[in-house]
Amino acid sequence: MKTASGLNPGRMKNIDNYLQRIVDTGKVAGAAGMVIRRGETAYCSSFGMRDREARAPLENNSIYRIYSMSKTFTIVAAMSLYEKGLFMLHQPIADFLPAFKEVKTAIHDEKGIVRLVPAKTPITFEHLFTMTSGIPYPGEDSYSSRIMEEIQKKAGHDAAKGKPWNTARMVDEAAKAPLCFHPGEHWLYGFSHDILGRLIEVISGMTLGDYLSEAIFRPLGLNDTAFYVPQEKKNRVVKPYRLDQKGLEEIISLGNDPASSNPPAFESGGGGLCSTMADCAVYAQMLLNNGRHIDTRILSRKTLDLIRTKHCIPSEMSSQVFSHLAGYGYGLGVRTMLDTAQAGLNSSLGEWAWDGMMGTYYCIDPAEDLIALFFIQLLSDINSDLQRGFVQTVYGAIDD
What pTM was computed for the model? Predict the structure, then answer.
C-alpha cells in the first residue's frame, strides 16, 4: 500500500523491528528513529529505556547529547555571516584571531624527533570548515594532539578551581599547539569547528550560543536545543551508556557533560549541543528545503549547494577516515555521498549531513525528498554499524 510519503507501511515495520532488535540484544538501552518524506512525517518511534536503571522509557521528546552533530549548526551559523560578506572562505583566520598569526607545524624526522617550523600557508576559513587545518583534537596520536591534551588538562584544573575557560580563552590556548601538518595538505578530524565557533563570536559580536539562537534556534522554533539542559528538563535527558565486552553499562561521569544544568563557559561549536529528535528534524527539513522554513529563510539555496558539495574526496581522507565514511566525500563540515557501492548503502548520490559521538545521526536526501534521523546515547565502536542498519531499513521502505 502506497502513502503520500511513498513509503510502504508494511515495510516500515522493518524499522520497528530493527530498533527493537538492537534494544533486545543489549546493544543499546534505547533507540529512536524518525523519517520524513515529501514533507510528511512517515515514521517516528522510540524503543527501550531513557534510563534503564530507573526503568524510565525512552520517549519521542527525550533530550540527547548530539555532540558532533553540533558542527552542522555551527557551519550554518558561520555561513549566514558569509552571506553578509563578513568573511571569505580563503581568508586567513588570523585576520580575526591574532593568536593564529604565527602558527607552527610539528615535523617528525625519520628518527621520530620533532621540530617546529612555520606553517607554509596561513590557516583559512576553508581549512577550518573542511578539517584540513592540521588542528587536532586532544589525544595521544601525535605530538600536536598531546600538546592539545595538556591544554585540555590545564583547562580542567582551572575549572575545578572555579575558574573555567570561556570560548575565547580555550581557542587562544589551542592556537599555541603546533599543527599536525601544513594547512591544506591533509584531512584530520579535530578542533577546527570549535575555532570556527569562536570566529562566529568575534564577527557577530555575540556569544556563540546567542548567535545560534538568533540565527537558527528561534527562527526554527528549536526550544530544546542548547549548550545545556535546564533543571526543569532534566527528566527528559537520555542516560549515556558504554558497550564493551562485559555488555552495556551506564556511564557514571562524562566530564564536561553537554547535558549539564548550567550554561558552560566554553560553548563548543564542535560538539556541545543537546537537542531532541523533533528539533533536529525541523532543522534537517529546513536544510532539505534549500534553507527555507515556512516563511523564514535561514540560508540561500546556493550557499547550501556550496556546503554539501565535495571539497575533500575519500582518497584525501584515507589516513583518518572513519569506517562509516566509506564512499563519502567531505564538504563544509558534512559528509556527502559520492559512491553508494563503495559505501554499501542503498541511499542516494548527494545524500548528506553528519552524526555525533554517541550515535545521533541524520541524513538529508534531496533526490528522494527525504530526511532520516537515528538517535541513541552510546559510546561504542559499533555506532556506525547501528546507523547503517537503520539507513538500510529506511530506504528499504521506499515504495515508488
Answer: 0.96
